[in-house]
């Protein structure tokens, strides 16, 4: 028999659109000779629906759409993920539909407790396993965490297990999926077919990458990442026949495609006509520009360069060169006169003392906020979404300005470290050279004061990023990080900066998650706290 995996990109809340997408997939599967088609978790309403599930009208719309879908399926068997409200309980469900009726419905047993969607807040847990037979083969159903969280396997008396997932992407996620599936097969000795969601939803990106393993734990089918497609699996003697497998993706390619899909779906699903960004001549804004053009097309992207007296001539030249290479609309607006006017007004009206030898950060932040104001004005006028260009390293330690370079609607690099920014730039230039090499080679600088470089204020980025990764993503203690041969002074400084800048991150734009612990969905620390993790190192309260 033939089974179709429908790797779909639904939009949360677009129930009629998602229904039409499923109907089209069913027809494509039918034409391919499939007897069975499987869709991802909650494909009917999109994932995660979050508080939409608290509205009665929402799950009633889902129920009505399920009825329409049931009547349109015909002689093919469809497995569709949907919310199911019955007997005053709401379930994350998957229904088996055939010949105009629902044959059986499975309710997810293990509910996801991930930071970005606590399913137990919305759904009730199912109790019973679900087994159905088709063409002499017994199929079992599970939904996402049922499988990934090692659900009980004693009740899975089936020949092939079908898993509906909405498993979000992060770096190396597919490796862990393979490992869990392989362990399961070693215990149970049955083939497993995974259908995973694809597409961007707010901070999350779902990579699809649906796959099949036979009862020996061998990979027989692998769907392409980050794309909608219908894959056909041939079963013979209850085993999936081997298919031609695609090459193993380059890790940088996967990350880059995740960022592109995150931008594309955030812009298109929210109905923005395009995007704009401040182009500084630096590496971060260069990468954001490349991603935006690859995601949306050059005609949907506008860049603005806003120099002052501190802007190097090469920054102007490199920004203009990159804008020309990518053929985007590019504006240049010198803000020096505005900066001087703002500065003079602040000094005069607020009776501020101005010491040229020690100006502090106020003049630097003022420049960033003037730029943010002008960019938001252009966004208001055109309707384009303003993309921020700050990276995870800067966001972690507060090397960014509220209402300045943090102003905007979507933070493309929010979960991308500075060292990863450089690697992604090099990867993108291997496809075609769009980022001038001088942007990659020159020392990074905010260009807000004379002869400024980032390392005036921060440890070198390779050290900074390693400390951030160890503390934020791996939850290492300060002492454990020092034991990795990092300076106690650097460790204390970085951890202190991470915690004291929580108030900035709370006000930042949503951004794409690519790591296990991002600052948008997975990091939940209080703004107000007297807990000082760095104090255990015995370093002064304000390490240099």
CATH topology of the largest domain: Rossmann fold
Strand order of the largest sheet: 5-4-3-2-1-16-17
Described by strand count, sense and barrel closure, the largest sheet is:
7 strands, mixed
Q: Tell how many strands the DSSP assignment holds.
A: 22
Rg result: 26 Å
Low-confidence stretches: none
Top-tier CATH class of the largest domain: Alpha Beta
How many domains would you count in the coordinates? 2
Q: What is the molecular shape?
A: elongated
CATH superfamily of the largest domain: HUPs
Range of helix content: 25-40%
Q: Helix/strand-derived class?
A: alpha/beta
Question: Can you name the CATH architecture of the largest domain?
Answer: 3-Layer(aba) Sandwich
Number of helices: 17
Provide the residue-averaged pLDDT. Answer: 92
Kindly estimate the percentage of residues that lie in beta strands according to DSSP: 15-25%
Distance between the termini: 68 Å
Structure explained in plain terms:
This protein is α/β, with parallel strands linked by helices and 544 residues long. The chain folds into 2 domains: 2-249, Nitrilase/N-carbamoyl-D-aminoacid amidohydrolase (4-Layer Sandwich), CATH 3.60.110; 254-537, HUPs (Rossmann fold, 3-Layer(aba) Sandwich), CATH 3.40.50. Helices cover 37% and strands 20% of the residues. The protein is built from 17 helices and 22 strands. It has helices at 15-31, 56-73, 119-122, 145-148, 173-188, 251-269, 283-296, 313-326, 336-349, 362-382, 392-397, 418-431, 437-441, 461-473, 478-482, 488-500, 502-506; strands spanning 2-7, 36-38, 77-86, 89-98, 101-107, 113-114, 117-118, 131-134, 137-143, 160-165, 191-196, 198-201, 204-207, 211-213, 219-222, 229-236, 239-240, 275-278, 301-305, 329-332, 385-388, 410-411. The chain has a 7-stranded mixed sheet, with helices on one face. β10 (160-165), α5 (173-188) and β11 form a beta-alpha-beta unit. The chain starts with a strand and ends in a 38-residue tail after the last helix.
């Amino acid at each position: 028999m033939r089974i179709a995996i429908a790797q779909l990109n639904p939009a949360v809340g677009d129930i009629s659109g998602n229904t039409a997408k499923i109907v089209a997939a069913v027809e494509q599967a039918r034409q391919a000779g499939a007897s069975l088609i499987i869709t991802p978790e909650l494909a009917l309403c999109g994932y995660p629906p979050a508080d939409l599930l608290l509205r009665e009208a929402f799950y009633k719309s889902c129920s009505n759409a399920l009825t329409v879908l049931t009547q349109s399926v015909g002689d093919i068997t469809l497995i569709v993920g949907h919310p199911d409200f019955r007997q005053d309980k709401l379930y994350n469900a998957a229904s088996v539909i055939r010949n105009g009726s629902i044959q059986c419905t499975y309710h997810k047993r293990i509910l996801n407790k991930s930071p970005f969607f606590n399913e137990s807040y919305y759904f009730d847990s199912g109790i019973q396993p679900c087994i159905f037979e088709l063409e002499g083969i017994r199929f079992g159903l599970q939904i996402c965490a049922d499988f990934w969280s090692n659900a009980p396997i004693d009740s899975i008396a089936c020949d092939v297990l079908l898993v509906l997932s909405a498993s979000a992407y992060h770096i190396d996620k597919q490796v862990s999926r393979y490992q869990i599936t392989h362990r399961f097969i070693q215990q149970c000795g049955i083939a497993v077919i995974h259908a995973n969601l694809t597409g961007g939803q707010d901070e999350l990106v779902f990579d699809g990458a649906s796959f099949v393993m036979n009862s020996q734990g061998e990979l027989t089918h692998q769907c392409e990442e980050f794309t909608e497609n219908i894959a056909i699996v041939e079963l013979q003697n209850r085993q999936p026949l081997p298919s031609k497998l695609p090459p193993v993706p380059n890790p940088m390619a996967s990350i880059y495609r995740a960022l592109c899909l995150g931008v594309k779906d955030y812009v298109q699903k929210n109905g923005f006509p395009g995007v704009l960004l401040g182009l500084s001549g630096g590496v971060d804004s260069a990468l954001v520009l490349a991603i935006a053009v690859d995601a949306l097309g050059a005609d949907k992207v506008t860049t603005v360069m806003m120099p002052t007296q501190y802007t190097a001539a090469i920054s102007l030249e490199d920004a203009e060169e990159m804008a020309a290479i990518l053929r985007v609309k590019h504006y240049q607006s010198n803000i020096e006169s505005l900066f001087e006017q703002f500065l003079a007004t602040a000094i005069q009206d607020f009776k501020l003392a101005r010491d040229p030898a020690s100006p502090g950060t106020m003049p630097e932040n003022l420049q960033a906020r003037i730029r943010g104001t002008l960019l938001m004005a252009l966004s208001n006028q055109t309707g384009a979404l303003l993309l921020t260009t700050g990276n995870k390293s800067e966001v972690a330690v507060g090397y960014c300005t509220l209402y300045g370079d943090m102003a905007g609607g979507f933070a493309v690099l929010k979960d991308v470290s500075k060292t990863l920014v450089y690697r992604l730039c090099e990867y993108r230039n291997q496809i075609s050279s769009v980022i001038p090499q001088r942007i990659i080679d020159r020392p990074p600088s905010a260009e807000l004061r004379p002869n400024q470089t980032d390392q005036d204020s921060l440890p070198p980025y390779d050290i900074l990023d390693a400390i951030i990764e160890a503390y934020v993503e791996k939850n290492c203690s300060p002492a454990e990080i020092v034991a990795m041969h990092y300076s106690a002074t650097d460790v204390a400084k970085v951890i202190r900066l991470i915690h004291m800048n929580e108030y900035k991150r709370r006000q930042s734009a949503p951004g794409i998650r690519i790591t296990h612990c991002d600052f948008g969905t997975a990091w939940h620390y209080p703004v107000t706290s007297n807990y000082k993790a760095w104090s255990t190192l015995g370093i002064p309260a304000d390490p240099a």
